[in-house]
Write a structure and sequence with these properties.
114 residues; globular; 57% helix; single chain; mainly alpha
Length: 114
């Protein structure tokens, strides 16, 4: 399940969701992005991934992009996939954002005690 990989990849979101055009339109609305903004962000994230995460190129300074759009699109993607699995008994959180908040608070409580 890739949001920011190559469009041709087997596990790219366009090859996973049943209605890619509708999915993208709804995702853009959810994330308050235009198609052009998403495409630009996609290029930025893919460049970051290619140069510093998946491969280490010769660049000496890492420019970490703002991850807000990555988080928002991932939460939307997760909710969409989760809704498709409603008939399957799975032990996964229903809402990824809420799950993150719970885990963050648990870790904060733990590390505040150290």
């Amino acid at each position: 399940m890739k949001l920011f990989g190559n469009n041709n990849d087997q596990h790219h979101w366009k090859n996973i969701v049943t209605e890619p055009d509708s999915f993208k339109a709804n995702m853009l609305h959810h994330c308050k992005l235009t198609s052009e903004e998403f495409d630009s962000y996609h290029k930025e994230m893919k460049s970051y991934r290619d140069q510093f995460v998946a491969h280490l190129d010769s660049e000496l300074i890492m420019q970490i992009p703002d991850l807000t759009n990555a988080i928002n699109t991932t939460e939307y993607y997760y909710a969409s996939i989760y809704s498709e699995l409603h008939d399957i008994s799975i032990d996964c959180p229903k809402n990824l954002g809420n799950y993150y908040d719970i885990c963050f608070q648990e870790s904060k409580n733990y590390f505040d005690k150290l």
